[in-house]
Write a structure and sequence with these properties.
Helix content is 88%, strand content 0%. The chain has 72 residues and is an all-alpha fold. The termini are close together.
């Protein structure tokens, strides 16, 4: 039982960190892409960052779900 709780805590910490990274990346996508790119290239890079941030959201949710399942 103690091992399951430890696994759940680790999964929650990692899942929360990945989710927070996705949140931060999505909210700061405009700031993270330098201004020296032309308009089309900059928009493409911003969309790419936002897609990666969404993937982090999903990965974080999956890890948090796995933490809940680890306790069952």
């Amino acid at each position: 039982m103690t091992e399951q709780v430890l696994h759940a805590v680790v999964l929650m910490l990692v899942g929360g960190g990945v989710w927070a990274l996705g949140y931060w990346g999505r909210s700061n996508a405009l700031v993270l892409v330098p201004d020296h790119y032309d308009v089309y290239e900059r928009e493409r890079k911003i969309r790419s960052l936002r897609r990666g941030a969404f993937a982090c959201y999903l990965a974080g949710v999956v890890l948090l779900g796995a933490a809940v399942l680890a306790l069952v």
